[in-house]
Structure prediction request, 506 residues.
Amino acid sequence: MLTKEELERFWAEASEKYLDHISIDCVVFGFHEGQMKVLMLKSNNEEAWYLPGGFVQVQEPIEKAADRILKERTGIDEVFLQQFRVFGDPDRNKIHNEMYKDKLPSKTNFFEQRFISIGYYALVDFIGVNPTPDAFSEICTWRDLADLPNFQLDHENIFKTALDTLRLQLNYQPIGYNLMPKEFTMPELQKLYETILDKKLDRRNFQRRMLGFGILNKLEQTRKGGAHKAPYLYSFDLDNYQAALKEGLKSGW
Amino acid sequence: MLTKEELERFWAEASEKYLDHISIDCVVFGFHEGQMKVLMLKSNNEEAWYLPGGFVQVQEPIEKAADRILKERTGIDEVFLQQFRVFGDPDRNKIHNEMYKDKLPSKTNFFEQRFISIGYYALVDFIGVNPTPDAFSEICTWRDLADLPNFQLDHENIFKTALDTLRLQLNYQPIGYNLMPKEFTMPELQKLYETILDKKLDRRNFQRRMLGFGILNKLEQTRKGGAHKAPYLYSFDLDNYQAALKEGLKSGW
Prediction:
C-alpha cells in the first residue's frame, strides 16, 4: 500500500503528465499448455484484481500510449494490440474514487475525475512476458480463464467484452500468430480455437476451413516421436495472414 | 459564420457543459435509389465538409451522447449506432484550432485543446431523416459515396475507416434493417450489399448464403407489376437478426 506522500507525488505528477478523463485498459491474452490466460494485477489495497491500464500523455498518440502501458507490464513491445470498445459509463470509476478519499483532498486526487476508458486487447507470446506490477498492485500474473478472481471497477465487463469480441473475430480474422509456436500441428491450432470458443470443433471441418483461408504453409517435416502417424507441421504465411487481418478472411463476400 | 460574441458564448457554455478532450464523430449511412449516402455538414467558415459530431456532457454516458448528437442532426433516435474506432492522434484537430485563433484568446477557446474522438457509425432510414445544420455549418445534407466533397480535419480518415469496418462486418453481422424497406426482394437486398462493397456479387451464391443465415422471412406475396415473373418478397426475422448482431452470423465456427 502506498503512503500518503507517495500517493500525493503520484497524483501531482499524473495531473501534469496525462490528459484528464481518458484511460486505457488492456486485456492481454496468452495461451500456455492448452489453457487460455489473461494478465491481471492484484490491488495492494484490497482483495481484488484489475487489468493492466494507464493514461495518455499530453502529446502522446493513443496507440503509443497502449503500447507503452503494455510494455511496462510485460516487457514486450510491437504486439498485436487492437482497440475493441470504449467504456464510458459516468459512474464506472466511482468505487476507485471512494478507495482513496480519506487519503487526499478530492481536488488533488487525479483518480477522482470521470475516466472514459479505451479498451485494447492483445494476443501475446506467453513465454516472452515478464509480468511486472505497477504502483498500485502487489502482484502481476497470468490468471487462467477457467479460474478468474474478483475484478475491480468495471474490469469484469471489459474482460468479457474483449473475449466476446475475440470470439466473434475468429470468424473473419486470422488468429494464432503470437499465440502458437512457430511450427505447429493442425490439432494444436484447433485446440487454440476450442479454448477461445470454449467448445469442441469438428476435426475435418476445422482443417478444411483453415486450409481454405490460405494463411497456412504446410511444411516438409512432420512432428516426430508420437505413437501415431506423425502429424504434418504448419506455419503461418505471414503475407497472407497480414492481408487477412486487414481485409478479412477469404470466406467473405 | 458566427460572430465573435456568439463564439464566446458557445465556448463558455461548452467548457461548463462538456468533458475536456473527448469528442464524438458519427458516420451516418443511408441508402436511397440504389445509392449509398453519408450525412455531412458544410462548414460556414470554409469550403470544407465534416461529419456530424459533438461532445460528451459532464455526467452523460457516451452512448447517450452519441444518440443525442445523431438526433440533433437527423431528428431520429433509437438508431443502430455502433462504435468502430477511437481517433487519438495528438495533432488531429490542430487545423481546427488555427481556424478560430484570431477570433478568441486561446485559453477561452474550447476547440484549442486536444480531442480524442470516438467514432460511431449508424445505418439509418434515409426517408426518415431531417438533416439539420449545427452552429458551425450552413448546410447539412446527404452526399453520395461516389461524389464526396473535401473533408475537414481527419474526417476523411474517419469516414473511410467506418466504411472499411462496415465492409468487414458484412461477413459476420446482418445488415439491412433500417436501410431496406420493410418488404424487399432478394435482388434489392443484393443491390444494397453490392453498393456497400462496390462490386458485383453472384446472384445464386448471394441468395443461398443469405437464406443460410436464417435471418429472412419469405412472405406469401410476390412483387406485382413487373414484366418478369413476380419476385418473392422477404422481410427480416427480427429475433434472429438481433441474435445474429450479438453472436455473429451462422457461417461462424
Q: What stands out?
A: Residues 196 and 252 of chain B are 22 Å apart (CA to CA). Chain B has a mean pLDDT of 89. Chain B has seven helices and nine strands. Strands of chain B lie at 18-32, 35-43, 49-50, 53-57, 81-87, 116-123, 137-144, 216-222, 232-236.
